[in-house]
Design brief:
Layout lengths: L1 E5 L9 H11 L4 H5 L9 E4 L6 E4 L8 H5 L5 E4 L2 E4 L9 H5 L6 E2 L5 E2 L13 H5 L5 E5 L1
Antiparallel strand pairs: 1-8, 2-3, 4-5, 6-7
Length: about 140
Amino acid sequence: MKRVYVNENRCLGCHLCEYYCAFAATGQPDMSRALKGKKIRPRIHIEEVPNSDITFAVSCRHCVEPLCVKGCISGALTKTDGVISVDKDKCVSCYTCVLSCPYGCLVQSESGVVDKCQLCLQTAEGSPRCVDGCINAAIIYEER
């Protein structure tokens, strides 16, 4: 299964991946109109190591044995064909999955339910928007 991988040696910490991720969730054709004046809620986040030049993107790793899915009490998180997805209608906002994820990849949406990277499968463009928007090729989408 293809997954998103990050090369921290190439990450510039520019946060473009966050904007592309937030843009993908809007379903709009124009990024500037979709995001202008809005607080973005990306499913990928740039982390910066204090007192160093190291930055890297963190997003769902779609684990082989996902603790978030095991911890989900409502059945809102499921794994199908290697992709972990959220059924927002089933989520009860208990955040057990947030506490279970060892990578900190689940976030709270505006409505309070859990949100996470679903590899932009709803866009059907072949690869996640964060990968397409990374200007330094620090984020890649491949099978390993």
